[in-house]
Structure to design on (123 residues):
């Protein structure tokens, strides 16, 4: 494993420090914005026709069924989100990570010019 992949997998996607009466986000985005600056932001999730609006400071994702019956993110939504984040990385060349509610980060960046297939992990 390269030093970048070690650093990338341990980026430290910590949950936001929201007020205690606000729920923690189900997913958050982290973007490398400069040589050593990382910007964290929530991912806005809506129900509707599948589309994504991802820029350097926000992410808005619409999906037909983003949530399971228990309120967690659906597998189809997770796969769609990773694909859209990877497309955003290819478009603007800004490194991105997704931090899930279970504190497991997913890197959307190619490592050594290659992308690994995204596999859903269950804990």
């Amino acid at each position: 494993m390269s030093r970048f992949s070690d650093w990338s997998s341990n980026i430290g996607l910590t949950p936001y420090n929201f007020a205690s009466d606000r729920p923690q986000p189900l997913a958050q985005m982290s973007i490398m914005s400069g040589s050593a600056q990382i910007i964290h932001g929530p991912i806005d999730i809506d129900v509707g026709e599948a589309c994504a609006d991802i820029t350097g400071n926000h992410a808005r994702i619409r999906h037909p069924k983003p949530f399971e019956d228990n309120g967690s993110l659906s597998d189809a939504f997770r796969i769609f989100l990773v694909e859209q984040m990877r497309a955003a990385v290819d478009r603007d060349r800004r490194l991105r990570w997704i931090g899930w509610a279970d504190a497991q980060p997913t890197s959307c960046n190619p490592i050594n010019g290659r992308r690994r297939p995204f596999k859903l992990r269950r804990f």
Remarks:
- The first helix runs from residue 3 to 9.
- The chain has one domain: 3-8+25-107.
- Residues 1 and 111 are 10 Å apart (CA to CA).
- The chain has a mean pLDDT of 76.
